[in-house]
Amino acid sequence: MNAEQAPPVTADANQPVAAYSWYALSVLVLVYVLNFIDRQILSILANDIKADLGVEDDYLGFLYGTAFAVFYALFGIPLGKLADSWKRVRLMSIGLALWSTMTALSGFAKNGAVLTFARAGVGIGEATASPSAYSLISDWFPARLRATALAIYSSGLYIGGGISLLIGGLIVEKWNESYPGGGPFDLAGWQVAFIAVGLPGLLLAIWVLTLREPIRGAIDGLPTKHDPHPFRGFFQELLQIIPPFTLIGAGMRGMGALAINIAGGIAIACVAWALIVLTGVRDQWVFLGVGYYAIFSWVVALHSRDLPTFRLTWASPAFLCTILGYGMVAFTAYTMSYWTAPYAERVFLVPKTELGLAIGAPAAVAGFLGVILGGRVADYLFERYASGRVFVIMFGLLTPVPVAYLMFNTDDLTLFYILAFMAQMLSASALGAAAATSQALVLPRMRGIATATFFLATTLVGLALGPFTAGYVSALNGDDLGKGVLATLWAAPIGFVLLLAAIRLVPAASANMVRIARDAGEEDITNG
C-alpha cells in the first residue's frame, strides 16, 4: 500500500496508536540494530586491523569516525531531502542493501585505502536510514508518544553496538583458531567478521520493502500532498553539497554566490592545511575539510532556495544549541563506545569473546535501558515544561563525565565493566530527547532535512572528532588509550553552555515556528 492508498489519520492528541505502527517500529529497530552492528563491529576488530595493516590509533579513529562520518553527513542531506519527497520505505531498503554490501566488501580489504573506501560506502548507505525512519515514526505516532517511539527506534543503536562485540569477538577467535595461518581466500578472522555481518542485511532489505507508507503529516492534521517530482529536489541538493558540483550549484545562483562559495572553500582549505601541518595527519583534515566545505555550500544554498527551512534550522538558535549540545554528548559517547573494547584488550589483556560477553552484552542492555527511560522521562517533562526534553539531554551530557574519569583510571577489571555499563546507560538517555526536540522545531515537510541536520552534529562534530582525538592523543603518548579517551571530556563544558541556552530558547522557538510558517504561506502546525 502506498502513501496515496493508506487510510487517513486525523489529528487527535489522545488517539490510540495502531498495532501496525508498533509492528513497523519493530522492523525499523531491527534495521537500526544491523546499522550499528555494521558500524560498531570495527571496535572489536581494531587491534587485529592495526596488527595486520600496520596502522596507528589515529588512523583507527579516522576509519571509525571521519571516513564514515563525512560521507554519512554529506549524503544525509540530499537523502534527507529525498525522504521528504519520495517513498521512505523504498529509500531505506535501497540504503540498507548498499551499506550491507559495503560492509561485506570491507572483509576483502588488504590495505587501508580499500578499507577507507568501504567505510565511506557504508556511510552513504546508512545515511538513508534515520532521515527515513524519523520521518516515518513521526507519521506513525502522535506527538505525545513521539520521543518514546524515537527512543525505542534509537535503542537499536545500543543493541547493535553491543551485539557487534559479541558477534565479532566470537567469529574472530573461532576463525583464527581453526585457520591460524589464514583461511579460505587467505582471509583473517577480522575480514570474515565483516562479511558475516554484512550479508544478512540484504535479506532484511526485502522485509523492509513490505512496510506500508503512511500519509505524510496526517497524524498532525496536516496531510502533505504527494510530490510529483520527488527526485528533482534530490539532484538539486547534490549540486549544492557534493564537491565539485557545488561550484555549478553556486554559479547557477549568480556570480556573487559563486564568489562566496569559493571564498568559503579557500578559508576552510587554509584551516585544514594548518591542521595538517600542526598535527602531521593528512587524511583526517582533508576529509573533514571537504565535509565542512560541502556543508557550508549547502547552508548558503538553502538560504536562497528554502528560506523557511533555513530559518527553522540553521538560523534558529534553539535548534542549533539543541543539536550542537547533543553533539557534545556524541563526542564523548562515540569515543567511549569505540575505544572501550580495544582499551580493555590492551590494558587488561582480555580475550575478545570475554569482551563480547562482559562489555558488549551489558552495553546493549545499558543502552536500551538508558534510551527508553530517557525517552519516557523526556515525554513526561515535555508535558509540564516547554524545555523539559532539554533537561534530559543535559543529564546525558554531564553524568557520564565522572564515570568515564574513574573508568579509565581504575586497575580493577570488574569495576571497569560496571563503570562501562553505567557510562553507556547515562549517555544513552539523551538521544530520544534530542531527536524529539529537533523534530518539534520544524514543519512536517522539513522533518527529513531536520533529521539530516541533527545528524550533522552527531557525525561531523561527535563521530568525526571524538574517536580521532582520542586515537591521536593515544598515538602521541605511546598508545595510551586511557589518556586519549579522557582528553575528550573537555567537550562537556561546551555542551553545558549550549544546552543552558537551549533551555531558554526552545519555548520561544515554538511560537516563532508558527509565525515563520504563516509568513511563508504554509499551514499552522501542532507542536510535537
- Overall pLDDT score: 89
- The level of helicity is over 70%
Can you tell me the overall shape?
globular
Question: What gyration radius follows from the Cα positions, in whole Å?
Answer: 22 Å
| Biggest sheet layout | none
Task: Tell me the number of strands.
Answer: 0
Indicate the proportion of strand residues. under 5%
Provide a short characterization of the protein structure.
This protein has helices spanning 19-40, 42-53, 57-64, 66-83, 88-106, 112-126, 129-140, 146-178, 189-198, 200-208, 230-241, 245-252, 255-279, 283-305, 307-312, 317-347, 352-382, 388-398, 400-407, 413-428, 431-440, 447-476, 481-486, 491-519. By secondary structure, the protein is mainly alpha-helical.
What does this entry look like structurally?
The longest helix is centred in the N-terminal third of the chain and has 33 residues, at 146-178. It is built from 24 helices and no strands. The protein has 528 residues and is mainly α. Helices cover 77% and strands 0% of the residues. The radius of gyration is 22 Å and the shape is globular. The model is unreliable at 1-11 and 524-528 (pLDDT under 50). α17 packs antiparallel against α18 (388-398).
Give the helices and strands, then pairings.
Blueprint: H1 19-40, H2 42-53, H3 57-64, H4 66-83, H5 88-106, H6 112-126, H7 129-140, H8 146-178, H9 189-198, H10 200-208, H11 230-241, H12 245-252, H13 255-279, H14 283-305, H15 307-312, H16 317-347, H17 352-382, H18 388-398, H19 400-407, H20 413-428, H21 431-440, H22 447-476, H23 481-486, H24 491-519
Helix pairs in contact: 1-5, 1-7, 1-8, 1-10, 2-8, 2-16, 3-4, 3-22, 4-6, 4-11, 4-14, 4-22, 5-6, 5-7, 5-9, 5-10, 7-8, 7-22, 8-9, 8-17, 8-21, 11-12, 12-13, 13-14, 16-17, 16-18, 16-20, 16-21, 16-22, 16-24, 17-18, 17-20, 18-21, 18-24, 19-20
